[in-house]
Amino acid sequence: MVKIREFQEKDQDEAYAIWKHGMSVDLTEYWTDWIFNLFHVRVILLTLPLVVVYYGYGTPPVGILYAMVPSGLFIGFFRFMIYWNLNGYVASRTDMLNIKKHHGKRFLVAEGDDGEILGTIVYVEETKISTFKGRKLGKNTWEMFSMSVKESARRLGIANKMLAELEKRAKKSKTERIVFTASTPQVPAVKFYKKCGYDFEHEAFPTLGRSIFAAIFADCFLKFCRMDIVKFQKEL
């Protein structure tokens, strides 16, 4: 039996580990699958060796290995960009290092029969999302984020239970709607939220990076990879 309850200080290490795994390991897999399944990325990977061969740098037998170098560098670059973006985000979330201080009772966990923490979800009452589909949102809005389920406990309905508990608490507080965001590479999560009755719209990623150069570089990367933010909303 899984119980959804408010965060306790003893949950810090387990809750942080689940969240970090979701934000780095899981998202890395989603982003990697998304990028290397894009048609234009596959075309580039196949074309680069042919270009090398065409200019005479990839003659057999040893030259074939040289022909694969540009594609290997291309793959390495994109894997680095995935790592740089996602780990930069994790590093920026210093609030997760002290959940009790920054989130308190707004941070909910899914607890198994043996006391093991199986999932996390948190909300804020002052949202950064102010509009949805061109309409300004009212003040009675909660924003959800950091929902993660432990890898060994997935496909057990835990995400459904956590989201249902959040909606229950929101209704009790007379909250009018819940909003949150995901990214297009998070295909399973996007399908899940749609199935739960959340309306959605796409918008461009916010500016990333600590400097102007890093922000421009990250923005070009995200556009090349055709990644968007998926904004969700549900009226209660």
Automatic annotation (TrEMBL):
The chain crosses the membrane at residues 34-57, 63-86. InterPro entries: Acyl_CoA_acyltransferase (IPR016181), GNAT_dom (IPR000182), NAT_camello-type (IPR050769). Signal peptide: none annotated. It comes from the Eukaryota. SUPFAM superfamilies: Acyl-CoA N-acyltransferases (Nat). Keywords: Coiled coil, Membrane, Transferase, Transmembrane, Transmembrane helix. Residues 149-176 form a coiled coil. Residues 64-219 form the N-acetyltransferase domain. This is Oidioi.mRNA.OKI2018_I69.chr1.g3385.t1.cds. It comes from Oikopleura dioica.
